[in-house]
Amino acid sequence: MTQDVEMKDHQTPSHSVASALPSTLQHLKDIASLIESGAHTKEVRRIGRAVRLTMGLRHKLTAPVLSAFLDFAFAPGSETYKQLSAYLPKDDEHAMEVDSAPSAKQAPTKHSSPELEIFCYLLVLLFLIDLKKYNEAKACSSASIARLKSINRRTLDVLSSRLYFYYSYSYELTGDLAEIRGNLLALHRIATLRHDELGQETLLNLLLRNYLHYNLYDQAEKLRSKAPRFEAHSNQQFCRYLFYLGKIRTIQLEYTDAKESLLQAARKAPIAAQGFRIQCNKWAVLVRLLLGEIPERTIFVRRGMEKALRPYFELTNAVRIGDLELFKTVADKFSSSFNTDGTHNLIVRLRHNVIRTGLRNISISYSRISLTDVAKKLRLDTANPVADAESIVAKAIRDGAVDATLDHENGWMVSKETGDIYSTNEPQIAFNSRIAFCLNMHNEAVRALRYPPNTQEDKETAEKRRERQQQEQELAKHIAEEDDDDF
Amino acid sequence: MDPKLTEVSQLFERFKAALVRNDFDTCANLLSQLKVLLTGFRSLPPLFEDTPNAIHELTLARDIYEHAVILSVKTEDQDAFERDFFQLKPYYTDASGRLPQSPQEYIILGLNLLRLLVQNRIAEFHTELELLSSTALENPCIKHAVELEQSFMEGAYNRVLSARQTAPHESFVYFMDLLAKTVRDEIGGCSEKAYDYLSISDARQMLLFSSDKELADYIKEDHPEWEIKDGCVFFQKAKETAPCKEIPSLQLINQTLSYARELERIV
């Protein structure tokens, strides 16, 4: 998303003198030629760039500009042209005439490529969503999806994945997500058959979003675990996937994996995606609390997130102290915001962690304490607090939350001496995992570098190339041998 | 009225009568006939076709499956419960917009939650829980199951056991009895980690046995590593032995070599 903003900034200054309307139209035409050339040379990345440029122009789109562009792109009589221009509001007759006049001359020579046609659909759809004409947007996106199904071209993948997204988005805005579930599944199937990996990625995310919107975690997990996975093509889609994965795993009590996915999603998300990062952080905080960890204060005081994370901050505080009363007050106080976040059930689960933390604090401060006092300190207000305290402590001991033994006859909890952690393998393991993380990060960064095609290489003579290839081969052999040497 | 529908309704009436009499063989027999007949209706899931009698058929089918679930509880057949519940579920989720809510719905959902708890399928328990609205969570049947799960996770087993008296519906009792067995295993597992030893009478009380003999049998059967000596149960044997102090040399060499290789690649 950051890229979009930057792109826009680069573009505008040079044209700021000219009036907004023609310049936007000119940009669109540039983008169209970019798409055409991308489609012609089968350079998918050019189309990707075109889409990014379009997002920069998004807020400058107006009905006259769009209709002028449609005139430019299509032969006037074509089916798609009629269909698309029907969606545009006709209030600005005057401006339209002015613009369509020059382009009409070009029209006869035009024969639009499918890429350009789909691109026009995308433009109109964006425009309708921005105007909040959601019902028209729904109709337009459905029409575009129907058209997409009949074209099978890899150069379309980037455009179609955007269209899928806005298709689902327009239905979500009107609250009819359940309606398109079958359609999305069919599209996912088609994308899989066509080896359209970007499309698969996008559609899988949309389906997960669709299921999670209705809290259908079971179906979401079944789909996710069975859908084909491959290396991510788009960072944004990968972030979303990680977020959904984290949510599913949280619900299914796989907290360790959930934490990993959620933190990774928050880390990988672009800076501009503030809302997404807030959501990720909310869930990550809860998962870490459920794991018995206390998130650092810095998470809550970051600029822009402070207000949104406030309820979670107070919650963390209650868990940290291990005070059941405070926990209850906080849960009640912010219950409406927890309900909107859909985290209410997780908060209910947390109660048991509050008790655990309280118990751990007691076990650290006392070497021996009677169960009556434990019950009092934990504020267990039940019929038989001592018996409850005893079994709660017993379970905490079994789960490894506290290191103690119980003396039933005397009704005591006796804490064990905390052993010297440096006499165990623990530090070595922690050290290793950190080193592994850093090395992995470096390797991934190297792998993510992209090199522009080297123009000088083309001029290389045949002889030189052979020499270089030989060198490379030797090097590869060398590396392979080295690998064999290790164990 | 549609003759097929009349036939099903009549059969269903006989089924209900048999269920009241607790005549389970007849019930099972009639139920399989009913299920076969239901496949003939095109308005039921998964087709959901909009036939003129759709509402009537859906209501009747839902009623039949609800009774099937109740029957499976009475016959104490958990597999049948799971099957029937999954057949019933689409009527609650996908047909909820077209049918008025069933008075049985919360009881059945609560029973299902309890079943998942008894079978210790906590992940599925929470997945089901997410599907419930906040009004559903307020319902006594659902609330009962949710509170049980909480006490269970905390380790407040006394509360789990005493909840048997407050069961909101008669059919809950069967699962509560099953839950007692799960609770005993849990207490056993916790005790062996938490106590060094327990006197036999305390152990008997804690593990909910009425006689010492039952306790001895249980220990022999499920926990042969416990030792009975001087009127006490010793758990010492079950505890882990002290961690060995050996240096994991091979692992260390491996790791160091891999660091060296990675660093070489970077520099």
TrEMBL record, chain A:
Cytoplasm in keyword set: no
Record-linked InterPro entries: CSN3, PCI_dom, PSMD3_C, TPR_PSMD3_N, WH_DNA-bd_sf
Keyword hit for Manganese: no
PCI domain: residues covered: 239-420
Keywords: Proteasome
Span list, region Disordered: 452-487
Gene Ontology molecular function: enzyme regulator activity
Record GO biological process: regulation of protein catabolic process; ubiquitin-dependent protein catabolic process
GO annotation, cellular component aspect: proteasome regulatory particle, lid subcomplex
Compositional bias (Basic and acidic residues): 456-480
Gene3D superfamilies assigned: 1.25.40.570
SUPFAM superfamilies referenced in this protein's UniProt entry, alphabetically: Winged helix' DNA-binding domain
PANTHER family: 26S PROTEASOME NON-ATPASE REGULATORY SUBUNIT 3-RELATED, 26S PROTEASOME NON-ATPASE REGULATORY SUBUNIT 3/COP9 SIGNALOSOME COMPLEX SUBUNIT 3
Family: Belongs to the proteasome subunit S3 family.
Biological role stated in the UniProt entry: Acts as a regulatory subunit of the 26 proteasome which is involved in the ATP-dependent degradation of ubiquitinated proteins.
Description of how the protein assembles with itself and partners: Component of the 19S regulatory particle (RP/PA700) lid subcomplex of the 26S proteasome. The 26S proteasome is composed of a core protease (CP), known as the 20S proteasome, capped at one or both ends by the 19S regulatory particle (RP/PA700). The RP/PA700 complex is composed of at least 17 different subunits in two subcomplexes, the base and the lid, which form the portions proximal and distal to the 20S proteolytic core, respectively. Interacts with UCH1 and UCH2.
Protein name: 26S proteasome non-ATPase regulatory subunit 3 A
From TrEMBL, chain B:
Classification via InterPro entries: 26S_Psome_Rpn12, CSN8_PSD8_EIF3K, PCI_dom
GO CC terms: cytosol; nucleus; proteasome regulatory particle, lid subcomplex
Residues covered by the PCI domain: 79-251
Source organism, top-level taxon: Eukaryota
Protein name stated in the entry: 26S proteasome non-ATPase regulatory subunit RPN12A
Keywords assigned: Proteasome
PANTHER family named in the record: 26S PROTEASOME NON-ATPASE REGULATORY SUBUNIT 8
Family of this protein: Belongs to the proteasome subunit S14 family.
PROSITE patterns per record: PCI
The keyword Zinc appears for this protein: no
GO BP terms in the entry: proteasome-mediated ubiquitin-dependent protein catabolic process
